[in-house]
Amino acid sequence: MVEPAEVNEQTLSLDVLNPETRSAWEQAISGRVPVPVSAGGKITAVLVDAEEFRLQQRRLSLLERLTASRQAVAEGRMHTQEEAEERIAQ
Prior knowledge:
Strand order of the largest sheet: 1-2
Largest sheet: 2 strands, antiparallel
Mean pLDDT: 84
Distance between the termini: 35 Å
Helix content: 40-55%
Low-confidence stretches: none
Shape: elongated
Number of strands: 2
């Protein structure tokens, strides 16, 4: 799972943002609403609250694991608890 970086020399300080950008940041943080950021008329990034980002990454990770498990079941690569215990006992 991807985690937001810790504060370091590459971290952007809120103090350097212009008022419009600061307003977008405040909107993203206060309402936990993703704020699209565009360049050249195309969305190039999305500003989100750090905690919301962590939650989204956790949900994505769980969905990926669920998808992999479903695929394994479909391919017959999964065993019941009893089958697994029998294999371990051998």
